[in-house]
C-alpha cells in the first residue's frame, strides 16, 4: 500500500447510471487512505463523477450534485428532439458547478468519452468546452436527447466505450478501475419480460466488450451488490455510495496488510 501511495494514479470510471454513486464511495475510501488520482477517464455517469472529482469538489458536494439534479422534470420534456428529455436544459444546472466551462481549469487531467451518432464513432474530450461533452457523455438514449457539438449529434459514451481506459494508459504508474456495470448471476424470474431481457443482453454485451480492459487495471473494483439497483432509480443513490465505499475501504485495508494481494 505504501508503494501505491508513492505512484501516480490513473482512475477509470465506468457508466452505469445511479449505480455510479459507488464511484463516489470509492473516491471517499481513496481519500481516507491518502490516494489521489492524477488523471481520470470517465464514461456517462463516470464522466460526471470524474469531472466533479477533477474539479476539486468534495464527496459531499458530489453527492449533492446528483441528489439535487432532477432526472425528470416536466418542463424538460421534449417533443421536438429524439429523446423524452431535452438534455440541453441541464446546461444551467451544470454551469453552477463548472462556472468557467473549460477542461483547462480542472485540478486533474480529465478525459471523457461520447458517441458520435452520425459518424458511428467514439470521441474523447479533454480540452476546451467542458459542459457540453459532459452532457453528451451522459445522454442515455432514448431517455435523454443527443447533444449537438460542431454540427454533430453525440450521445452516451457507454454506447461504444463504457470503460475508457485508453486515454489513461501510459499516463499513470498505477491504474484503479471502478466498474459499476455489473453482470452477476440472475434468477430466471428476473427475466420475465422483453424489457428485462433487453437490459440483461445489453449489460452482457457491454461487459464482454470491456472485459480485457477491466482485467488490465492494477486494481479493479466491481460491485456485484449494485445489480439490484436500477440504472435510473434515484432511491438507490445512498445505497450505491455505501456499496462503493465499504467494498473499496475493505479492499484497500487488505492491501495495506498484504501488498502482494
TrEMBL record:
Domain PNPLA stretches: 11-169
Protein name, per record: Phospholipase
Residues spanned by motif GXSXG: 42-46
GXGXXG (motif): residue ranges: 15-20
Coiled coil regions in record: none
Gene3D superfamilies: Cytosolic phospholipase A2 catalytic domain (3.40.1090.10)
Gene Ontology biological process terms, A to Z: lipid catabolic process
Domain of life assignment: Bacteria
InterPro entries per UniProt: Acyl_Trfase/lysoPLipase, NTE, PNPLA_dom
Motif DGA/G, residue numbers: 156-158
GO molecular function terms listed in the Swiss-Prot or TrEMBL record: hydrolase activity
Catalytic site: 44, 156
Keywords linked to the UniProt accession: Hydrolase, Lipid degradation, Lipid metabolism
Amino acid at each position: 500500500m505504501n508503494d501505491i501511495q508513492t505512484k501516480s494514479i490513473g482512475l477509470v470510471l465506468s457508466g452505469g447510471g445511479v449505480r455510479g454513486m459507488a464511484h463516489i464511495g470509492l473516491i471517499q475510501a481513496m481519500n481516507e487512505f491518502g490516494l489521489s488520482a492524477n488523471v481520470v477517464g470517465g464514461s456517462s455517469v463516470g464522466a460526471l463523477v470524474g469531472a466533479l472529482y477533477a474539479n476539486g469538489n468534495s464527496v459531499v458536494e458530489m453527492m449533492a450534485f446528483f441528489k439535487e439534479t432532477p432526472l425528470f422534470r416536466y418542463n424538460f420534456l421534449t417533443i421536438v428532439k429524439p429523446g423524452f428529455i431535452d438534455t440541453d436544459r441541464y446546461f444551467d444546472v451544470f454551469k453552477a458547478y463548472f462556472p468557467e466551462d473549460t477542461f483547462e481549469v480542472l485540478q486533474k487531467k480529465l478525459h471523457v468519452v461520447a458517441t458520435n451518432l452520425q459518424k458511428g464513432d467514439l470521441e474523447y474530450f479533454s480540452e476546451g468546452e467542458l459542459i457540453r461533452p459532459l452532457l453528451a457523455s451522459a445522454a442515455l438514449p432514448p431517455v435523454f436527447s443527443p447533444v449537438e457539438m460542431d454540427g454533430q449529434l453525440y450521445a452516451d459514451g457507454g454506447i461504444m466505450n463504457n470503460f475508457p481506459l485508453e486515454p489513461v494508459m501510459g499516463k499513470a504508474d498505477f491504474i484503479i478501475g471502478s466498474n459499476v456495470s455489473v453482470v452477476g448471476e440472475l434468477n430466471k424470474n428476473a427475466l420475465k419480460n422483453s424489457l428485462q431481457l433487453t437490459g440483461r443482453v445489453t449489460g452482457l454485451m457491454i461487459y464482454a466488450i470491456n472485459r480485457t480492459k477491466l482485467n488490465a487495471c492494477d486494481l479493479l473494483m466491481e460491485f456485484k451488490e449494485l445489480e439490484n439497483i436500477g440504472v435510473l432509480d434515484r432511491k438507490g443513490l445512498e445505497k450505491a455510495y455505501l456499496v462503493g465505499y465499504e467494498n473499496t475501504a475493505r479492499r484497500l485495508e487488505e492491501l495495506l496488510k498484504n501488498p502482494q494481494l
